[in-house]
Design brief:
alpha/beta, 11 helices, 9 strands
């Protein structure tokens, strides 16, 4: 199987430098795209979805600072690593670039081997992934896998409550990324506050995916927490919509909704973390949230 190449977007108005970087990074095994104008760079980030951007500051139209600001303010491009490559050497210029959110700042003339290593390191950090969700601040990725591994391997029993937000894509398409992020934050806060009433401080809440939450708690608290969350989340969904849209959205099948799945014991049910996660996703995708008897000790 051919490895997927990391994509680099070079935004550079010096045609000689752009051509040299294009050829060099292609030889290094990257998929490379080049543009010479700032506006083209912003559009290319939204269409090409690069893994990293090498960005000049002096451009013919908008400058690199403005390009970086736009990329950081757009939910679709906010996490792309940016390396400034520029003739602007003053400390104030470097600080301005880093304040905007650039991951690195290299001045011209530059050592292409150093640039290669900085690109490699930035992509490595990206591939390792964040340990917390950028919207809610809750654990995700490796932290969730670590917690699931612990409950699979320990002798005492734990239960899992799975909370899924349905139809977030439709909501985001209608109301935008800011509104959908607000929904995600609000639901995470509702879950946190409900857990404070029912659960212990050491119980775990994290993301299985961007819109799926996983709670690890004792089986004795599972029913009470599940009941409270079902009630509160069901009553809250309509309030995420503007007042003028609520009556119409209540009739639509693609309206915001939440579903819960309960697995009352992990002990002896799964061999690996991936197997446990796959089963939770299967339950979600097949809408079998009411049918979990095979995982209970009834």
């Amino acid at each position: 199987m051919t490895d997927i190449k990391s994509k680099i977007l070079i935004i550079e108005d010096d045609l000689d430098v752009a051509e040299m970087l294009n050829a060099y990074f292609r030889v290094q095994g990257y998929e490379v795209f080049t543009v010479n104008w700032g506006e083209d760079g912003v559009r290319s980030c939204q269409t090409v979805h690069p893994d990293l951007v090498i960005l000049d500051i002096r451009l013919p139209d908008i400058d690199g600072y403005e390009v970086a600001r736009r990329l950081r303010s757009d939910r679709r491009t906010s996490e792309i690593p940016i390396i400034f490559l520029t003739e602007k050497r003053d400390r104030s210029d470097r600080l301005q670039g880093l304040e905007i959110g650039a991951d690195d700042y290299i001045t011209k003339p530059f050592d292409v081997q150093e640039l290669r290593l900085r690109v490699r390191n930035a992509l490595k950090r990206l591939s390792q992934g964040s340990l917390t969700n950028p919207v809610t601040g809750l654990p995700e990725g490796a932290l969730v896998d670590e917690r699931l591994s612990e409950i699979l391997n320990k002798e005492s029993n734990s239960a899992v409550l799975f909370v899924s937000i349905e139809n977030m894509d439709s909501f985001r398409e209608a109301y935008g990324f800011v509104a959908s992020d607000d929904v995600l934050r609000a639901i995470s806060l509702m879950i946190v506050n409900t857990m404070r009433e029912v659960s212990r401080p050491e119980d775990f809440l994290g993301h299985l995916t961007g819109t799926d939450f996983i709670i690890v708690l004792p089986p004795s608290n599972l029913a009470a927490l599940g009941e409270k969350l079902r009630s509160r989340l069901a009553q809250s969904m309509e309030y995420f919509y503007p007042i003028k849209d609520r009556e119409q959205m209540a009739k639509r099948v693609d309206r915001l909704n939440t579903k819960l799945a309960e697995i009352s014991t992990f002990k002896g049910q799964f061999s690996t973390v991936d197997q446990a996660k796959a089963e939770l996703v299967r339950l979600k995708n097949r809408s079998l949230f009411a049918y979990y008897s095979r995982y209970t000790n009834l």
